[in-house]
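Final report, Chapter 2: Outcomes

The project's central promise was a pipeline that accepts a single protein chain and returns its three-dimensional structure in a standardized token representation, suitable for archiving and comparison. That pipeline is now operational. To close this chapter, we reproduce one record exactly as it appears in the project archive, with the input sequence first and the structure output second.
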Amino acid sequence: MKRSKPSASTEYMYTPLVTSWPFRDSMFQAKVPSPCVPSKGSSTTMSPESQSEARLCRSAFHDPTNRAGLGIVPILLIANLLLGVYVNLSIWYKLTDRTLMGAVVSIGGALVTVVCLLWWVPRFGYIGAAWATLACYASMVLASYLLGRKYYPVPYDVKRVSGYIGLGIVIYLFNRELVTATGTPALLSGTVLLLVYLAIAYALDGRKARRGRLN
């Protein structure tokens, strides 16, 4: 059977997860051989290159300096979320045969990226590059939404969508402060707050969606 290709919006949704180390190897180690975990049925003898890669993988879990870049992960996740929003918004210029405008929006996003990189990277390093990515996709979402309202209006519930995004950011910031102030394990507090977020989402929209499906 031929495997169907995932849609663009679905791809942008799961790409940050499956390409983020160290989750990638743990999710696909049954299919993709990893230097950190010997595959089943293979010889336990490892080449010097494989041993070096295995030591590098193990050291990454124990050396705090290897986790210094985790601070940019939330920024890039929000940026990828906005990229998915842009992909869905960009359908208007395809339906109205105004693909040139889509090219202009993309070029504008590229210019925003270049300007922000030249401005922020010398000051903030790779964190500035992460913010430049977020600024690029945010500007493209805004431009595509405003142009779409003019040429192909769609009644998006902007307040509700923005509310969910804002709620997620508030919960994330609250979790950081909670962990810093009380020493609560980040995994525990993050899991509890994620369940709170899902409960709020279900209370606001889950019942309506289920009721509409039953009707």
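Archive annotation: DSSP finds nine helices and no strands in the chain.
This record, like all others produced under the grant, will remain available to the consortium after the project formally closes.
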